Structures are given as C-alpha cells and as structure tokens.
Amino acid sequence: MAGVNQLERDLIRRWKHKGIELNKKEGKFKGWLKKYHKNHAGMNYAVKLYEEVDMNVNQIFEITNVSRASLFRKLSERNS
To answer: 32 φ, ψ to 5°?
Structure first.
C-alpha cells in the first residue's frame, strides 16, 4: 500500500513540474511575489529614515515594521 502511495505522489510531483515549466515558457509562472517591492511605502520610508534622519535600526523597525534583515538587504542592494 505504501508503494502505491509513493508512486502516486511521484506522478503528481512530475505533473506539477511539467505544468510549471510550461507556464514559465509562456510567462505565466513567476514564482513568489516579493514582499518588499520597489514601490513599497514602508521599505522606502525605512530607507529614508536610515539615510536622512540617522535613526537606530531598532527604532526604524518599531515605526515601519520592516525587519532588520530586510532593511540591511535593501541598503546593500542600493549601495552596490
């Protein structure tokens, strides 16, 4: 019984991957949406506070709810 279940699971996985490949070729499948896109108001405000107001990262987190890691990632992207 376990062998049949495993076979069925493998078939489902193959079908899913084939569907994803076809959709990627057609431009329909783009993966996860980014939480902090380039027009995200909270992230842009957090970067502005960090660069212009010279606030502490913990203070910025409390105001904007943007995580420290995300803020530092965005800052490193902008500096490169």
So the answer is: -70, 145
